[in-house]
Amino acid sequence: MPKTITLSPPAATGADGLLASLGGLLREWLPRQRWFAGKDRPATDLSVLSVTELFPGCLHLLVNASHAPGGTPPPGDCYQLLLGLRERPAPSLERALIGRAEHGPLAGLHVYDALHDPRCAHLLLERLRQPGNAGPLRFEVDAAADVPGGLAPRLLTSEQSNSSIVYGDSYILKVFRRIQPGVNPDLEVPQALAAQGCARVPAPVAWFCTTAPRPATLGVLQPFLPDAVDGWELALRALARGEDFTAEASELGGAMAEVHLALAGAFPAAGGEENGVTAEAMCARVDAAARAVPGLRPYVPGLRAAFGALAVHDSGPAAQRVHGDLHLGQVLRAGPDWFVIDFEGEPSRPLAERRTAQSPVRDIAGMLRSFDYAARQRRPWRPEWASRCREAFCAGYAARAGWDPRKEHALLRAHETDRAVYEVLYEARHRPDWLPVPMAAIERLAEWRG
Predict the structure, then answer these.
(1) Which CATH number is associated with domain 229-447?
(2) How far is the C-alpha of 63 from the C-alpha of 15, rounded, in Å?
């Protein structure tokens, strides 16, 4: 059992002192993390925005990291860290080790990513079960929830842009890593859908936020579906067995239409989305992506043509709140039912943009791209499998929503193109081996004349 470490008040509250201890360690450790936005750039500047001793031996930090290649650093990104402190190395936490502090108030202590530590993860759940404040942190729980104590924690190791801990196969806590001011949609949207009676989305039971340096959501606890399998895994299983997936795709389309209808009721839109403004934003994104990924540049004229067609398109469904990052990994199948999770949206986009009303076709395009991603995971490529799934998903959606996305050709092509551009930039930065998948779609979409 490790010795309990209690920090003196200056160490617990002095940001400058902590930076003397942690600055070098974090500059080396942060760029290696899956959720670090500047993965392809060094952390050139680091500052501590907020520090709270959450419990003995565990610090909660919000740090700002900029990652410019040189010159004046930009404002950077805010990240949430929970750091465990130990006097001696912990062999069981070797993979979570950030390093040994050599200077400042933490000199001589070994610093860990506390979410890997079962003791820290357990104490975090206990804190969530008890509403109240800890410095600028505020812990809240749904009045109708009864979260039991003593649930064994298990940190998920799958590739994510955040960190998630499962407690006793009953609850899952998502700890947001990249923090932006405001209410995170992954708290706001499931709460609103629960009020609408939508059972397709697990409702939050507890959450925690901060008031400093600005109000922001830090984490959300929701029911965990232990027997559920995500849509990506189900699709790959079907492909491996040579099985059809159209029935599942059709049911998924109907489920997503139900979620969209509930979202429209929960968040009445003040006005329709302006296609011209949306097209301009899409053009700006493809231009920025082409500057970062040279292989995209030859296709830019054809891609901009897709966005130009959207600018003169005057029909389509009304704008509303949407999922924002829909794909097969964001849906779960438990028994006969589909569930939708992870309403955070694309983390690379500003929070205010993710909370605006947008065309539901954006979500549909994301799922259609996901079927193509799945089909390309096996050789030989099965384009007809993806095509059948796309058709079935749209048909299932149309049957429940009352309108058919396949009839909105310009709208669907523009949003699918925009999604493919996002995928190219993402894969180039995080998974270069996957880059050929969205680039194949880019080639098709740039030449399409339908």
Answers:
(1) 3.90.1200.10
(2) 10
